Amino acid sequence: MLQFDRLRRFAFMAVVTLMPAWAGAFETGASAAYIYDQSTGTVLLSKNADTPLPPASMSKLMTIYMAFEAVADGRLDINEELAVSSHAASYGGSSMFLDTTDRVSVEDLLRGVIVVSGNDASAVLAEALSPDGTEAGFARMMTDRARQMGMMNSTFANSNGWPAVGHRMSMEDLGILANRLITDFPTFYPLFAETEFPFDGRVPSNSRNRNPVLAMGIGADGLKTGHTQEAGYGLVGSAKQGDRRVIFVITGLDTREARAEESVRIINWAFRQFAEKEVAEAGTQIASADVWMGDVPSVGLTVAEDFSLLVPVLNQGAIDAEVVYDGPIEAPITAGQQLGELVITLDDLPEKRIPLVADADVARGGFATRMRTAALVLWQKFGPGGADEVAEEA
Prior knowledge:
Distance between the termini: 24 Å
Radius of gyration: 27 Å
Low-confidence stretches: 1-23, 387-394
Mean pLDDT: 85
């Protein structure tokens, strides 16, 4: 069968008003950072974001995610009471101050991990879900589950981020995890906004959430702080203003105050320096692609869903974009079949690729179409220019 194998590229200027220059990159004092606009799927900042680092208590988010999964699929009941082992009770640091005489509900344990960052509560949940009843066994489960979720730079040695050799997460992985917690468990997510959990009246000094931005009135509603001497001060945070949600992860700050100030700066920058712009509605034809052996010579390329871009607010000009597809595309073609991509590039922001699909069915051409195509190929091969090339080859 005769076929072409070549890449066709078209320049496409999107119908939006933007300008070549923009507001400028954000400079953070964090040693590693990741900022993500959930509404548009745009990474706004990535600084050492794929480097595995000590995550401290921020790694408790993985334990929380797996506990939420267990409640959702029935392996745990939210009202079920779990025993506290001597291992779990032995943890120091941030704690619910549990002892081996306690039996604690899953709901209270979850609040104990989320609000007061209880190392002991995290270990109790881990042992309940572990295949061998140990925290180490659960840590191996955490690593395997992280890989399944696309978190390739995360390896766990325990359930709570207690300093341990090889216990590492990247800031991007923590951002992926935060996004999944918000998206997969909307009924549980409000737990992250709770500012206090005075469990059983024990140790009032450790009853308040350490997240510094929850009470600032800037839309912050999660997720988890972290601090060890090795890791410094960090935060996995999220804030929602209007229809937009931003997720951010920072680590390596020197003080609590620096962590709070940097978090506020990030939230203000992400919401004030960027705006969401609608680019095209579903079904809008972006370009057309040549068809091989079809009953029509071309097919329209459209976006399957409404899509918008997050753009710097100071931009006033045109977006540079390309429509890319391998073609001509051989018939038959089905409406909705992905045929190419719209590749959009904005200064200092990662490239964005939007799938483009066929806007109509294209049937395979009949006898006349095949004859015309064969004649065209013969003309290109043996016609003026083509015959000379054949002679040279001979």
